[in-house]
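This protein record is not my work; I was only asked to verify it. The record follows directly below this note.
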Amino acid sequence: MIKTATRHPAADTGAAARDLTVSDGEFRRRLDRAADRAHQVIAQRHEEAVAALARRFPRGAAGGRAAPHRG
């Protein structure tokens, strides 16, 4: 068993403490779901960044290559 917390936040107000332990399997499932969501967010932000760069630096007369710097 992995303890995720020892006391419920309401315990500070006088309510009885509640045990918040979860099984190893449940902990792994929650961790996997959180990792999957994080990967989805990273992939989405990457796609947005690539699209923004494509708008900022469109492929044009240079044939997709960077234009030489001026000055």
Observations:
- Strands lie at 2-3, 21-22.
- Residues 24-56 form the longest helix (33 residues).
